[in-house]
């Protein structure tokens, strides 16, 4: 019979584990050689979501090799989460396009791949550009080469946005990024962008901005009221410059 430890998974993380592990001090078989981090991941919990690990009430590292009879507590990441070592920037997988556009709307640096470039390439990009990889794919978040990562808990864009903002508390600068490419926006004179506008737009609007990267032009069109609501709600709850 294999040796066992007793694991308590915090309520916030129990969606990752099976029903047997959702009770306090659930028995888990170990092989006496695998690290605690490996054991936790084998239960279904991505290490990106793990905050403190306690062994018999004392803080332990993911590299700790558990011994038979130990009691382990798996706690969630504390919010707001600090990501030291680089400016706070994000990389989103192919399934999070709406979230990427909303983060950009708020001025948050959010790179996004609209085509599926594959998990290895995403992980490598996260490492190369030191971006926090956001995904609902647990397997992707388990890749060792990612620089930092976070699981997106909801499949609803409104809840996804609140989740990311409450977890990382990025500085908000609404209306400063291109929602299409993540580039910076700059004020644009009407005459300089006129050739890019439909006749009705040229006749109706006078205030424009243009992306310094892809040159897309923006104005306060019919869709602006809906976007403004997203911005106002985010700034009210998570701070930022006046809208």
Summarize the structure in words:
The termini are far apart. The strands form 3 sheets. The protein has a 5-stranded mixed sheet with strand order 2-1-5-3-4, with no helix packed on it. The protein has 243 residues and is α/β, with parallel strands linked by helices. The protein has helices at residues 36-42, 97-105, 119-129, 138-141, 157-168, 190-193, 199-204, 224-238; strands at 4-9, 26-29, 50-55, 58-60, 71-76, 90-92, 110-112, 132-135, 148-151, 185-188, 208-211, 217-218. The longest helix has 15 residues, at 224-238. The mean pLDDT is 93. It is elongated and about 80 Å long. Strand 3 (50-55) and strand 4 form a beta hairpin. It has 8 helices and 12 strands.
At a glance:
It contains 8 helices and 12 strands. The protein is α/β, with parallel strands linked by helices. Helix 2 crosses helix 5.
Shape: elongated
Physical arrangement of strands within the biggest beta sheet: 2-1-5-3-4
The overall strand count is 12
Structure class = alpha/beta
Unreliable spans are none
- The span between the termini is 63 Å
Biggest sheet features: 5 strands, mixed
Oligomer: single chain
Radius of gyration: 22 Å
Give the ordered list of helices and strands.
EEHEEEEHEHEHEHEHHEEH
Number of helices: 8
Mean pLDDT across all residues, rounded? 93
**Strand percentage:** 15-25%
